[in-house]
Amino acid sequence: MKQKKNVTFNDIANYTHFSKTTISRYFNNPDSLTLENQEIIAKALVDLDYKENKVARILANGKTEFIGVIIPNLFLHYYSEMLNQILSTYESFGYKFLVFIGNGQEETERRYIQELLAYKIEGLIILSHTIPSKELSELGIPIVTIEREDKYVCSVNTDNYMGGYQATGLLAEHNCEVIIHINYINSPANPDVPAYGRVQGFLDFCTEHQIKHELILKEMGNTYESIRHHLSDILDEITGKYPNLKKGLFISNDTQANVLVNLLIRKYGKLPEDFLLVGFDNSPISEEAVIPISTVGQQIDKLSYEAVKLLVEQMNERKKRKPMLLKEPIHKVITPVLLRKETTEKELGTGFF
Amino acid sequence: MKQKKNVTFNDIANYTHFSKTTISRYFNNPDSLTLENQEIIAKALVDLDYKENKVARILANGKTEFIGVIIPNLFLHYYSEMLNQILSTYESFGYKFLVFIGNGQEETERRYIQELLAYKIEGLIILSHTIPSKELSELGIPIVTIEREDKYVCSVNTDNYMGGYQATGLLAEHNCEVIIHINYINSPANPDVPAYGRVQGFLDFCTEHQIKHELILKEMGNTYESIRHHLSDILDEITGKYPNLKKGLFISNDTQANVLVNLLIRKYGKLPEDFLLVGFDNSPISEEAVIPISTVGQQIDKLSYEAVKLLVEQMNERKKRKPMLLKEPIHKVITPVLLRKETTEKELGTGFF
């Protein structure tokens, strides 16, 4: 593996007969050159096999083009798909991403943020839930959060209220006589968390339409075993309490909705007529389940794109001679999409059951 | 958000009464100072609220501490978990990762690699399948691939042969009278791809133990719809061909194994006695399936750790005054783990079926 001699601005200037200043302008402010001259230089770079050294360029203009990302985990499809979409915005905005997985460890995440700041990231996207937005707002760089507490920072969130309202509406449309919302948050006491909107949407729909309903809030742990155990108890309870009613279950994520579908199928060999289910997230499991599960999909592509766009706007503002910093954080909201599948639309079945 | 004035080496020197050279040595070669002096400077950094600028440090010593990663997608759990584990090696090795998603686009991946080289990455981890290892080997930086064609570069792979052998052995142990391997690769003609080892392990076990067997190779597309369609046809074919035999199915990934389980359950209301199944990957779906699926697990944590370790060793070698470059690429192999679940061990069932 031979090491090639680096091609310098001098070499490019000699080759093209432009001045070194013109070559420098090509890299730092190409629009100041005519299109024709840009093309001459671009061709010279290919001829000379020029290798750009962006690290050197950063030192010259102070722009790293790095965005930091702190994400709780990649185990849940919701987060891995979000990261996928964030990374793919490189094609639109040209920013590179330095990614850290927080795993819910507050102190570790603080350490990661310091490391990111040492690399002169221009902005930060936060999906993890640990560090309060007040503290984030004091870091002194542009920040956008997605689906977490966001009082003091800019954010992009799903319209969870509308999602809860739509899911409940779908169950009502199918004439469910009691609608039950099962949510893993352990308390409705923190309306700062965007996902709480799902509970409120459910409650409002049922109240407005005078539908019999029940809200079940239960922390279920992180293993399938413990989720299965809790949901099995909840299913027994519901079955015993509403034996003769058509039951609509709105479950706050597809993973848990799938566990309920499995419990029902294993007990009855098919989905009983008096059970309808709707999940949330449009995870792959909603399609891979033995009976595909109706769900409320978050538009992860739009959430990611809007988050990066909002961040880039702020980063660009700071590069102006007289930046106008935001007086108040901006909060954007993305509409969810209701997906009707077999757990509510039995006619979509393939006829096997 | 007030902008703080940056603390310089001069400020630290004045505060501690050390020379600027000593301060510089603290950052670039701390071991050359006594522990006592290191502590004095460390304390000064806190007192002065010093913010490290690693970009400036890179220019001084040429080490970016960046590793580039090209991964095909984050949709498959196998890849998102691999990325999770790669990123978490930061705690062991201190390297930061610049990640690009290739989506199977060869030209795009070449462009990403150029961008990574412009950022002076010290090494590259490649999980995508597009660019031949010959071309990768000519990039002139240390490279490690995971589970792809790797003739000319270092790699870490699962022992796929053993995985195929173990899966087939489990079905034989349960007295299956015919063992069928269903694999999505469209041809066994490319033994350079590590996953081909699964086919060979299956064939060798059956031949050695004189077991009736069939190999079904079929490209099934990327949508659930098309996978479901193909597997439904295959299931009809198998059922018709071996009506009175106990059938063992070894399927090359858990996603497809789950589709087969769903087809069987939807047809018979339970898993028929004459069907046993083993998947591959230990994906979450193998646990979330209506009947948990026996599977061969790849040790993704070990694959990732060994890949980064092998890369770091080469990167460190290059920092020596007289580096010894590898004459031949190193190929490491990680043992897979067989996980017995309900699709082979019916006694593990919860009694519902």
What order do the helices and strands come in, and which of them pair?
Two copies of one chain form a homodimer.
Chain A: H1 9-16, H2 20-28, H3 35-48, H4 54-61, E1 66-71, H5 77-88, H6 90-93, E2 96-101, H7 106-118, E3 123-126, H8 133-137, E4 143-146, E5 154-158, H9 160-173, E6 178-183, H10 196-208, E7 213-217, H11 224-241, E8 247-251, H12 254-268, E9 275-281, H13 285-288, E10 294-297, H14 300-318, E11 331-334, E12 337-339
Parallel strand pairs in A: 1-2, 1-3, 3-4, 4-5, 5-11, 6-7, 6-8, 8-9, 9-10
Antiparallel strand pairs in A: 10-12
CATH architecture of the largest domain in chain A: 3-Layer(aba) Sandwich
Total count of strands of chain A: 12
The chain-level mean pLDDT of chain A equals: 89
Outline the low-pLDDT stretches of chain A: none
Percent range for helical residues of chain A? 40-55%
Greatest interface (CB-CB under 8 A), with counts per chain: A-B, 59 and 59 residues
Structural class of chain A: alpha/beta
Residues in β-strands, percent of chain A: 15-25%
Strand order of the largest sheet of chain A: 2-1-3-4-5-11
Rough outline of chain A: elongated
Please name the CATH topology of the largest domain in chain A: Rossmann fold
* Global Rg of chain A: 26 Å
